[in-house]
Design a protein that fits this description.
By secondary structure, this protein is α/β, with parallel strands linked by helices. It is built from 16 helices and 15 strands. The chain has an 8-stranded mixed beta sheet, sandwiched between helices. α7 (161-172) packs across α12, α14 (343-363) packs across α16 and α15 (383-392) crosses α16. The radius of gyration is 22 Å and the shape is globular. The two termini are 36 Å apart.
Length: 443
Amino acid sequence: MLGDYPIAGRRAAEIATSVERAVGHGELEPGQPLPPMRELAVHLGVNPNTVAAAYRTLRERGVIETAGRRGSRVRSKPATTAREYSRMDVPPGVRDVASGNPDTALLPSLAEAFAAAAERADREPVLYGEAAVDPDLSRHARRSLDADGVPDGPLAVTSGALDAIERVLAARLKVGDAVAVEDPGWGSVLDLVSALGLRPVPVGVDDDGPLPDDVERALRSGARALLVTARAQNPTGAAVGAARARALRRVLAAHQETLVIEDDHGHGIVDLPLHTLCGATRTWAFVRSTAKAYGPDLRLAVLSGDAETVDRVQGRIRLGPGWVSKVLQRAVVHLWQGGAVDPREVAGAYGRRRDALIAALAERGVSACGRSGMNVWVPVPDETAAVARLLHAGWAVSPGARYRLGAPPGIRITVSTLTEGDITVVADAVAMATGPAPARRYG
């Protein structure tokens, strides 16, 4: 069997490069198990410690993951894999409720915003050496953050939420550091943490966000950072409520050196108030992005935080891209000034779809959650079987394994494209595919 693996080399670096190349070329696919270290060592004629060193390098690069006795496998979204290898294919005739994309009918027209930004760029070309953050964007962003209770702090602009999170983690942590992450949580964050050579520590989630006892355990065990989704948590739809925020702040008060990173990608598509955790510790970062409200291709996020953290991020941006396009920044300002769809209308549309699906599932004995945002999380006894049965029934859902570390199985359903007539059809299909599911703790 080992002859089927395109793995070669005599030294650890050569073996790691061989695996990485095979993943990048699609010869080793996302999720594919790797041979046990001792068996591969015999096959290659090397010491098992050499293979162990190669696997360790691949883990640190975010290419593979190891789950104890279950062995090592290629990550679901390995850092070296082209997007086409990790994308979920939806067969013809099957409805896609897996993608996590917003409803395009709820996205604003971008033409006027970019035309206005481009016209200004013609009049006032942006040149090297100017401030990285447009003054109008800074003023509007600060006013919004102040209204939501986010502590005062300098601002930076990044190419989306994940770019901001990566830059903050790289600026503050070192390889091997532990990071408390939501479980289930955003799969891209889980992959990013591992790709940076950091160690994810799972924290359970319910409708109100991270569980305080789990956060306490993670921090006591040595986690140096905590990643929290403020609202529209992916995949569960959790939103941190007032009581939960107070409880988490009490935990964080005893861990003042913890880096708190708060992701508010749901801004503009939710109607629940923000209860921020930022400022509860000495180092913090708050990220507010535009992709969900204005479209995934609008790659912009505003980052605020303590002065040292933001300064480190800004300094690293200056050494690389320099700044995020001022045309893009000014287009976002135009949208903020009234060129966008009313956030209450967007939040209401997603809320009605979520609530209708959750209610329909409950009528069929299936527990589900989705307090905010555009996704519904359904705990299931057998994830693989549920995904396969739903695909056969004409619905492509997202398997929960993409979002879980130790949390029980589940599936994610994106409600963006669902019509009123779709709700009962989807609920029937889910009930047939899963049967009744256990109670509402998700991690």
